Automatic annotation (TrEMBL):
Species name: Apiospora phragmitis
Region described as Disordered: spans on this chain: 1-30, 263-292
Alphabetized Pfam families for the sequence: RrnaAD
Official protein name in the record: rRNA adenine N(6)-methyltransferase
Role of this protein: Specifically dimethylates two adjacent adenosines in the loop of a conserved hairpin near the 3'-end of 18S rRNA in the 40S particle.
Reaction(s) this enzyme catalyzes, per UniProt: adenosine(1779)/adenosine(1780) in 18S rRNA + 4 S-adenosyl-L-methionine = N(6)-dimethyladenosine(1779)/N(6)-dimethyladenosine(1780) in 18S rRNA + 4 S-adenosyl-L-homocysteine + 4 H(+)
Binding site for S-adenosyl-L-methionine: E75, D103, N119
Keyword check for GTP-binding: no
Keywords tagged on the record: Methyltransferase, RNA-binding, rRNA processing, S-adenosyl-L-methionine, Transferase
Boundaries of every Ribosomal RNA adenine methylase transferase N-terminal domain copy: 38-204
Length: 378
């Protein structure tokens, strides 16, 4: 009689990198070392409050409760919320745990807290970071696990292939520190990508930029929509010109500024050239094209449900037949185009620069120049 087949090396394998082996003596393998390092990273930054995006079955949450004064766990799955609640029932940790049921990204307000720690679901990485950065009173520290490529984008510098809108925003509003790399073997079954744990410390008080986040990010969206093209190409598209004109009209209306809306005489204005035809800049060798969010990884960090990108940025790559515009050009449209030209060419001299090469000082100059021309983005 043949021997029964066994799944060698898989008996008692944990379902996640934080689960203990089922049965037998517990060993401190790479998964347990990862858990210890991850928790030590949290313990070093503070222990007052700590909401987490997904407590799951509570393996990390239980360890955090040993050190924290209070833990606010945000869980989208009712079954997981019930599981973590059951694990502390009747124990001293029960009074320190508060579970909020819902999607952390869709919550309009969160309770006040000091520290955020999360083994973040990769599909909400970008929305979570942007939600943290634009909070009026952000946590003083966040310890988060991301896909490694996403983590590298957080710390990328101007000129790097991974430098994007996410890089500018995260470094402008916070201090980003890489804590440790998490290899595929730390998970069972191994995922397709490497991971990394990072510390995000939002700037507060006098260190926090005296700039509207919506205004700043709105301008960066336009700049990085065409990351590998010049700013001239990004700002002189018909879609962007129309959007800036609408914003300028709103500003004039709110400030009781009269505008000249009379049509332009034929021949007085030159047709705006399609900058896609005027300039076709290919990515550098080894550099993959990025979407508006500046993300080209395996995980989709801005899925359709969470995307807040203006609709005109969602263009298809398929060629669209050009039709003659029936809209008459107005003098206010010419004025707006001249304001953009002045900002890019005269005031900042950045018209022929690419967003991927600019630093936060350059973008600050750009925003100040646009605001000086009464052009806003929020």
């Amino acid at each position: 009689m043949g021997k029964a087949k066994t799944n060698k090396g898989r008996i008692g394998a944990p379902a996640s990198p934080y689960d203990r082996p089922a049965g037998g003596k517990e060993t401190a393998g790479p998964q347990q070392h990862l858990q210890i390092q991850y928790l030590e990273a949290f313990i070093k930054v503070g222990n007052r409050y700590s909401p987490r995006s997904r407590p799951g079955t509570g393996n990390i949450s239980i360890r955090i409760l040993e050190k924290a004064r209070k833990l606010i766990a945000v869980e989208i799955d009712p079954r997981m919320a019930a599981e973590v609640t059951k694990r502390v029932q009747g124990k001293p940790e029960q009074r320190k745990l508060e579970v909020l049921l819902g999607d952390v990204i869709k919550m309009e307000t969160l309770p006040e807290f000091d520290v955020l720690v999360s083994n973040t679901p990769y599909q909400i990485s970008s929305p979570l970071v942007f939600k943290i950065l634009q909070m009026p009173k952000p946590p003083r520290c966040c310890v988060l696990m991301f896909q490694r490529e996403f983590a590298l984008r957080l710390t990328a510098k101007p000129g790097d292939s991974l430098y994007c809108r996410l890089s500018v925003n995260s470094q402008f509003w916070a201090k980003i520190t890489h804590i440790l790399k998490v290899g595929k073997k730390n998970f069972s079954p191994p995922p397709l990508v490497e991971s990394a744990v990072v510390r995000i410390e939002p700037k507060v008080g006098s260190d926090r930029p005296n700039v509207s986040f919506e205004e700043w990010d709105g301008m960066l969206r336009i700049c990085f929509n065409r990351r590998n093209k010049t700013l001239r190409a990004s700002w002189y598209t018909k879609e962007v010109l129309n959007m800036v004109e609408r914003n300028y009209r709103i500003w004039c209306s709110l400030n009781n500024v009269a505008i000249d809306d009379s049509p332009v005489e034929e021949g007085e204005d030159d047709e705006v050239m399609d900058m896609d035809q005027q300039e076709n800049v290919e990515p550098s060798p080894g550099e993959e094209p990025l979407d508006e969010e500046g993300w080209g990884g395996i995980m989709d960090v801005d899925d359709a449900g969470n995307d807040t990108t203006p609709s005109f940025f969602g263009n298809s790559n398929a060629p669209v037949p050009k039709t003659q515009s029936k809209r008459h050009k107005t003098r206010v449209a010419l004025l707006v185009r001249e304001k953009i030209r002045k900002v890019l060419e005269d005031d900042t001299k950045l018209a022929d620069q690419r967003s991927g090469k600019l630093d936060e000082t350059d973008f600050l100059k750009l925003l100040f120049a646009f605001n000086s021309e009464n052009i806003h983005f929020s």
